[in-house]
Amino acid sequence: MKFVVFGLNHRTAPVEVREGWALSPEESRSALGYLSERVHPSEHLVLSTCNRTEFYSHVPKGFLPPGLEDASNDVSQVTAAYARFYRQPYSELPVSRQHAGALETSHFYVLTDEGALAHLFRLASGLDSMILGESQIQRQLRDAYVVAKESQSAGKFLHRLVPAALRASKRVRTSTAIAEGCITPGLAALKLAREALGSLQSRSLLVIGSGKIATSTALAFREANLDDYLVVSRTTQNALDLVARIGRGTVVEWSELESAIERVDLVVSSTGALEPIISSSTLARIQSKRGNRPLVIVDLAIPRDFEPGCASLESVHLYNIDDLNRVIQTNVAERIRHLPHAENIVREEMLAFQRWLTYSQIDPVLRHMIDRFEQIRLGELQSFISHFPPEYHPVLKEMSLSLVKKLLHFPIEKLKSLRDLRGLTDREVAFLKRLFLTDL
Questions:
Q1: CA dihedral defined by 371, 372, 375, 376, rounded to 10 degrees?
Q2: Other CB atoms closer than 10 Å to residue 417's CB: what's the count?
Q3: Per DSSP, what are the bridge partners of residue 7?
Q4: Which of 140, 216, 291, 405 has its CA 20 to 30 A from that of 21?
């Protein structure tokens, strides 16, 4: 059997191509059934997220996708054949989902055996993600495994492989700091706010604007248990939509912007205005009404929504996108510092899994050798034991057992040593099976 990974991700394919290959859990179930029916024996798992769609397959050693007559060394030819093979289940989807554009082989990758294992172990540990060390991929892989189990497309190999990859992921996260620190604008803003105000519990937040950046930053503040959310947008419906995504809050009319700033402790602003929407003199007047209570402003807009002079006002903490980027870059650098340790852990866990693979192939050979020698011992003992007085029978049995153990000791220990220290090649395993397993 061989392990194959075929897929595309955020590094190899643009979003419009990834969209054409994305699968929902139900569509994944359909694809798993389709693939299982066409390759016997086989195991399959589909991992589909916004950043990647990957097929993990454990198939017979000699399996080649249709159209690939031999194990070609032409990477483009191999990739195209696998792409056509894994695209077949999409014919079961609605017509609107079947089109994925022209097949461009550079968008895809095919990995086998050790390369495929290394990819999965690194992926599970957050080392192949757009955001280094992110933990969301753990849940996504776990969910994909559940779908594979429910679809009965996962067998002994995947039942051992996926938990092993998740164990590696857990060890990376507990043994390194690769998942720590803020490396998204929202989390960076949250960090700066906490540094300025301390605990954010019982604080209030005003979000100015309802675009992608304002939304993602506002969502990051949900974990801070804020007391209240206010949302201001020039388009009321967009503000209502953002409140719905946050799960709580109040929409404020644009005309009430200044009074809204007066009420809150935190402001996140990201509009498309070409000029500042709040001048330093306006904010000075607002601060006076607030009694100069501390005010944190995270201005994510380009051009900026708040005049730079606002930063000089008493108790005002004004941050812009550059401040957030400095926090992000500091934490990215810190995560990268832990990458070598994480890679070592991944290698160790992958080697442990590979040893299990070798055990699963070699242990039947060892057991067969022991059973075969035991049959010979019992046969020979039965043939000669009658020539000896009964009182010698226990000694003969003990001697025959001791003799067989000593004859088997060297070859078995040698095989175990090779298995445990460096593993055995596929050719060596095949030779041993042919030599000792009489039914092959």
A1: -140
A2: 10
A3: 54, 109
A4: 216
**What whole-number distance in Å separates Cα of residue 287 and Cα of residue 234?**
24
CATH code assigned to 185-322: 3.40.50.720
Residue 245: name the closest of 284, 219, 268 by CA: 219
DSSP string, 11-63: TTS-HHHHHHH---HHHHHHHHHHHHHHSSS-EEEEEE-SSEEEEEEEE-TT-
For 2-178, CATH number out of 2.40.320.10, 3.30.460.30, 3.30.540.10, 3.40.640.10 equals: 3.30.460.30
pLDDT single digits (tens) 369-392: 888 888 899 999 999 999 999 999
Q: 32 — alpha (psi -120 to 50), left (phi > 0) or beta?
A: alpha
Q: Would you call 50 a catalytic residue per the annotation?
A: yes
Half-sphere exposure of 60 (CA within 13 A, CB side): 9
CA distance 355 to 203: 54
Reference 207, options 137, 157, 151, 254; nearest CA is 254
Kindly compute the dihedral angle of the four CA atoms of residues 395, 399, 405, 409, in this order, to the nearest 10 degrees. Answer: 140
Catalytic residue, candidates 50, 130, 302, 376:
50
**Sequence spans of domains, the chain:** 2-178, 185-322, 353-436
pLDDT in tens, 332-372: 888 888 899 999 999 999 988 887 877 777 777 777 788 88
Question: Could you tell me if 267 and 301 are in contact, meaning their C-beta atoms sit under 8 angstroms apart?
Answer: no
